[in-house]
Design goal:
By secondary structure, the protein is α+β, with helices and mostly antiparallel strands. The protein contains eleven helices and eleven strands. A hairpin with a 5-residue loop joins strand 1 and strand 2.
């Protein structure tokens, strides 16, 4: 599973978990609102009040409470709401016992007011208490029921969260297992195809060499025989190199150091290294001025150079002598573009060419080594979070695009 797929799966889990948490909180709010309609709106003044209008009397009355306004002598001047108990006078001792009276069924909260008056809020103790206790039942039946509701909600929340996490773990395991099986099958197909393709040039080398050793080759044909042996050796070497490349892609330590590199500089270096090859094959390579700049990317330099080399050598080997190749950089789409004026690849065969040996010789048609070459290039680019795309160009030849970023699922 690559980095983008991993982040995508993790993101989906986080979004699901966030939505589930929001839904759980909404459900809890609904339960509380239905069971204790006054609790959610419960808010009392935190200090002195300037007038009785500072109090949420609707909330107080919903809790079956009331208010009393006292003068500086403790006389009750007025009662706000329906009082269940009648009190006409409070002593200083009464006021001091408000926070410690365990016997009374009501909690009284005192608030200073202007003109030396005092506001007393009287709330049933089953809803509000100022007395610390470790006994949940002592707070009142509704408070105990509220605790049970919260504990039940929290337990269900943890259980569902566990199910979500467990489902993610199983999904990741399934996807990793499926991907592993697919990669193993693909690897076996590659090895079977390479074994077949290695056998052909090897048999040719052995046959021609034996003819030379046995002295049955006419003198005038020995040069042609030696050229054939050398060419078949090149083919054999290329296929072994492709095999080693594929096997090394799974071992990051064998790819060298990955880091920020100038991909245009690396591309120019490949062209310089292949200059004698181009001269020998009569190929012409043109560099667009856009390749003279600097574009930094997180790459394996050795892999990047091998990708460019694969495409350039394919363009020369699979077209007529004298092919023209043009390289350019598209900064808007972050693309390295390699065009040739050769015969191109039919659109209906491009997908099979990128999948080596899937359709046997049909996938390669007359393009020697294109299947394994393009396949390894694709895999190497994916290792660096780039993609490969094949298109037609204006000259009727092939356009190969190295594009930064993940492949579009619709492509």
């Amino acid at each position: 599973m690559n980095r983008s797929e991993n982040w995508n799966l993790t993101g989906r889990f986080l979004v699901s978990f966030l939505l589930f948490t929001i839904l759980a909180l909404i459900i809890l709010w609904g339960i509380l609102a239905f069971t204790f309609p006054g609790v959610l709106e419960m808010s009392f003044p935190q200090g002195p009040v300037s007038s009785t209008e500072d109090v949420n009397w609707k909330m107080v009355q919903g809790l079956k409470g009331w208010g009393e306004v006292l003068d500086e002598e403790g006389e009750v001047l007025s009662v706000i709401g329906a009082a269940s108990e009648t009190t006409t006078h409070y002593t200083a001792q009464d006021l001091s016992l408000f926070t410690s009276n365990r016997e009374n069924d009501y909690t009284r909260l005192a608030y200073p007011m202007p003109d030396h008056q005092t506001l007393i809020l009287v709330i049933p103790k089953q809803f509000v208490t100022t007395v610390p206790t470790l006994d949940l039942g002592a707070v009142g039946n509704n408070q105990g029921f509220l605790n049970l509701i919260f504990l039940a909600w929290f337990g269900i929340y943890l259980f569902v969260a566990f199910l979500l996490a467990n489902r993610l773990q199983k999904k990741v395991a399934r996807e990793l297992n499926t991907r592993h099986r697919a990669e193993e099958e693909e690897r076996m197909q590659i090895f079977r195809g390479l074994a077949h393709d290695i056998k052909t040039p090897l048999a040719t080398i052995m046959a021609y060499t034996k003819a030379l050793v046995d002295g049955i080759t006419p003198v005038e044909e020995r040069g042609e025989f030696l050229s054939t042996i050398y060419r078949q050796g090149e083919i054999l070497s290329s296929r072994v190199t492709g095999l080693l490349t594929i096997t090394s892609l799974d071992a990051t330590g064998k790819l060298g150091d990955r880091g920020e590199g100038n991909i245009l500089k690396e591309t120019r270096q490949v062209i310089e290294d292949l200059s004698s090859f181009f001269d020998r094959e009569g190929a012409e390579v043109f560099l667009d001025p856009s390749l003279n700049g600097e574009v930094l990317a997180d790459i394996y330099p050795s892999l990047w150079r091998r990708c460019v080399e694969n495409i350039l050598t394919n363009a020369v080997n699979h077209n007529d002598r004298g092919v023209k190749i043009h390289l350019s950089w598209n900064p808007d789409h972050q693309e390295l573009i390699i065009d040739d004026d050769g015969k191109g690849i039919p659109k209906e065969k491009r997908k099979s060419i990128l999948a080596p040996f899937i359709k046997g010789d049909e996938a390669r048609t007359d393009l020697r080594l294109s299947g394994i070459g393009l396949y390894t290039t694709t895999k190497m680019l994916e290792k660096m979070d780039w993609t490969l795309q094949l298109e037609d160009n204006a000259e009727g030849g092939l356009r190969v695009i190295f594009r930064r970023g993940s492949r579009d699922p619709e492509e």
